Every structure is written in structure tokens, then in C-alpha cells.
């Protein structure tokens, strides 16, 4: 089925001017960028987005990192987009990521891992509506 997923190009990647190279990976995999904006998250916004991780030891560090510099939030669309995006991103920890994946090529560490992608249909819908209004999502 055609799906939509929420993607974030994280501060470590925007800082290194990698937005275009990362977007090329998505497009080469058949994912279409149907919405995109560059924003700077507040600590509160980062904390709310990652609320599911709030009991984890890395939560504070994660929120500080995500609020440290601008991010690019985007909606990717395509056949099986949620899983496909996870394949293109590679494993969370770049040390475990497969050749050719975004995290293998660009991530610096498990924390500064260049991209985020929704992990399931329910979280994709929730994460898309966290950042985008219906008006920003054209067919
Ligand atoms: P992401 O897909 O954005 O979802 C949660 C993030 O937490 C994850 O990518 C990692 O960047 C981050 N994360 C996971 N494990 C660790 C860790 N051990 N230390 C720091 N950050 C982590």
C-alpha cells in the first residue's frame, strides 16, 4: 500500500550540509518528499516528540541534541514507505548499519545518527500530525 512516514534530518546532518545527499537517498529508493520544512525545535518540542523515550537514560541528551540546531522535518510517501525508509536509514547505531544506508555513510554515533523515521503506521500518523497541518500535505 502507498504509505506516508515522518522523517527528520537531524542537527548533525543539517550542520554538515547533508540535506541534499540524504534526500537523494530517499528519492533513489522511490520515496517522494511530499512535505518538508527546516525548523529549530525548542527543548519542550523535542521533549514532547520523544516523550515515549522519557524514562531512557539518554532522553535528556537526545532532547538537547535535537534542539541544538535546525532540523529538516519531512513527509515521505511511497509503496511501503515506513519500512522502506527504515531500510534506507539503516540500523539506529551506525556501527550496525548496512553498507549504502544513510546511517552507515553519514551518522556519527548512536545519538548523532543523522535521521529519524517513524517505526509503524500509528506512530507515522501521529508524528506527521505533530509537525504538519492538513493544509501542508498536498496529494
Ligand atoms: P531515533 O530513531 O530518532 O529514535 C530515538 C533516538 O534515540 C534514536 O534515533 C537515537 O538517536 C537515540 N538513541 C538511542 N539509543 C541511544 C543511546 N544509547 N544514546 C544516545 N542516543 C540514543
TrEMBL record:
NCBIfam families in the cross-refs: PRK00668.1
Keywords for this protein: ATP-binding, Cytoplasm, Kinase, Magnesium, Metal-binding, Nucleotide metabolism, Nucleotide-binding, Phosphoprotein, Transferase
Active site residues according to the UniProt entry: 116
Name of one Pfam family that matches: NDK
Subcellular location: Cytoplasm
Function: Major role in the synthesis of nucleoside triphosphates other than ATP. The ATP gamma phosphate is transferred to the NDP beta phosphate via a ping-pong mechanism, using a phosphorylated active-site intermediate.
HAMAP family: NDP_kinase
Record organism: Thioclava litoralis
Protein name: Nucleoside diphosphate kinase
Residue ranges of domain Nucleoside diphosphate kinase-like in the record: 2-139
Annotated binding of ATP, by residue: 10, 58, 86, 92, 103, 113
Cofactors, names only: Mg(2+)
Reaction it catalyzes: a 2'-deoxyribonucleoside 5'-diphosphate + ATP = a 2'-deoxyribonucleoside 5'-triphosphate + ADP; a ribonucleoside 5'-diphosphate + ATP = a ribonucleoside 5'-triphosphate + ADP
Family the UniProt entry places it in: Belongs to the NDK family.
Keyword Metal-binding attached: yes
InterPro entries xref list: NDK-like_dom, NDK-like_dom_sf, Nucleoside_diP_kinase, Nucleoside_diP_kinase_AS
GO MF terms held by the record: nucleoside diphosphate kinase activity
PANTHER family: NUCLEOSIDE DIPHOSPHATE KINASE
EC number: 2.7.4.6
UniProt-listed SMART domains: NDK
Primary location group: cytoplasm
Subunit structure as annotated in this protein's UniProt entry: Homotetramer.
